[in-house]
Amino acid sequence: MLFWYTYQISIFTYFNNKNLVIELGKSESWFALDSAKGIIDSYYESLSNHDLTWQELWAKDGIFTDSSGTLYAAGSDAILASFTPFLKGVKDVTITQRIIDGNWACYIVNYVYINKSGESMEQKVAETWQTANGRLQELTIYFDITAYRKFMFG
């Protein structure tokens, strides 16, 4: 069984009776990566935490597309190049539903976007996944690209 392990350290500083106090806090998480749920949930947790762990979950020959084929990226390098600008406008990500069948899954995800004016917009997106060999293999998203682009770019 494969596992994904994350470890975060937080440093808290404050003054206590005029002395500087530094406390270290830590959080640990284990994700079972032998299942589609473990891999995909790890991906969304990384997006929610605004860290880069999601990048390591993609297969080298992974594929990302939308239902119309307007968006398409083949290979992990192309996927990272496609997602990185998009994620700069994502304020929050929440899984609302999931259906999993072996290495196939469908997630309904609520994204909160923030544009250059500081305005926010929520959008529910259906995302279908395939995993293979402990990696994200394929993602197809179903969303209103016109509403997204109009909100983000005017």
Distance between the termini: 47 Å
**Which series of helices and strands comes N to C?**
EEHEEHEEEEH
Poorly predicted runs: 1-15, 25-31
Count the DSSP helices: 3
Q: Fraction of residues in helices?
A: 10-25%
Largest sheet: 6 strands, mixed
Q: Numbering strands along the chain, what is their spatial order in the largest sheet?
A: 4-3-8-7-6-5
- Count the beta strands: 8
Structural category is alpha+beta
Give the overall form: globular
Beta-strand residue percentage: over 45%
Chain-averaged pLDDT: 85
Task: Report what the structure shows.
- The structure is a single chain.
- The model is unreliable at 1-15 and 25-31 (pLDDT under 50).
- The termini are far apart.
- The strands form two sheets. A six-stranded mixed beta sheet has the order 4-3-8-7-6-5.
- By secondary structure, the protein is α+β, with helices and mostly antiparallel strands.
- The protein is built from three helices and eight strands.
- Helix content is 23%, strand content 55%.
